[in-house]
């Protein structure tokens, strides 16, 4: 008896895409819909929409399968197409292309957010507080204006160093740097050195003879 059970368990293994398994909740799927999708992606193509067979294979009612398939269709994960089979009879076929498109787009969006999120977290760390929605928009605006991330962060550090933690000051720094063509950290450093040198040269040393002060 035990050997039969073991052989039954070994009868078929289902392949589950790791990315789908890790992100199905973020995609708006629940565990029941996930099971249906896993079942579908492991079927041979083309996938005939045989509600009775699916319900038997997954040990759920036909109505539950009908409801789940309909929900997946409404959420844009699958499409149902009517096609003629080899007997020229119309049959419903499940198209999984929308699922893979959704996964692809979600993957791209997530990677972009991950890349962009570094600059926001750096701002919050440097300022010691959570950014407001307006401040998020300002940073996004700087990025849209093609300011390099390293330049924006350099302006942030310059503002923090000077004890000025408002975004208007940072925006002014970026504006002045852009006007001067400063678009790299090396140019930022050169600009600081030139400014410091100019400041030192502008300091006037009074022509006064302290040794012969008779007063």
Name the overall outline. rod-shaped
CATH architecture of the largest domain: Orthogonal Bundle
Question: How are the strands of the biggest sheet laid out side by side?
Answer: 1-3-2
CATH superfamily of the largest domain: Winged helix-like DNA-binding domain superfamily/Winged helix DNA-binding domain
CATH fold group of the largest domain? Arc Repressor Mutant, subunit A
Please write the string of helix (H) and strand (E) elements.
HHHEHHEEHHHHH
- Given as residue ranges, the uncertain stretches (5+ residues, pLDDT < 50) are none
Structural class: mainly alpha
Task: Give the N-to-C terminal Cα separation.
Answer: 117 Å
SSE map:
Elements: H1 2-9, H2 18-23, H3 31-41, E1 47-48, H4 51-58, H5 62-74, E2 79-84, E3 90-95, H6 97-127, H7 133-144, H8 149-161, H9 167-179, H10 185-202
Helix pairs in contact: 4-5, 6-8, 8-9
Written description of the protein model:
It is a single chain. With 215 residues, the protein is mainly alpha-helical. It has two domains: 2-95, Winged helix-like DNA-binding domain superfamily/Winged helix DNA-binding domain (Arc Repressor Mutant, subunit A); 113-199, DnaD domain-like (Arc Repressor Mutant, subunit A). Helix content is 62%, strand content 7%. It contains ten helices and three strands. It has helices at 2-9, 18-23, 31-41, 51-58, 62-74, 97-127, 133-144, 149-161, 167-179, 185-202, and strands at residues 47-48, 79-84, 90-95. A three-stranded antiparallel sheet has the order 1-3-2, with no helix packed on it. A hairpin with a 5-residue loop joins strand 2 and strand 3. The radius of gyration is 32 Å and the shape is rod-shaped. It starts with a helix and ends in a 13-residue tail after the last helix.
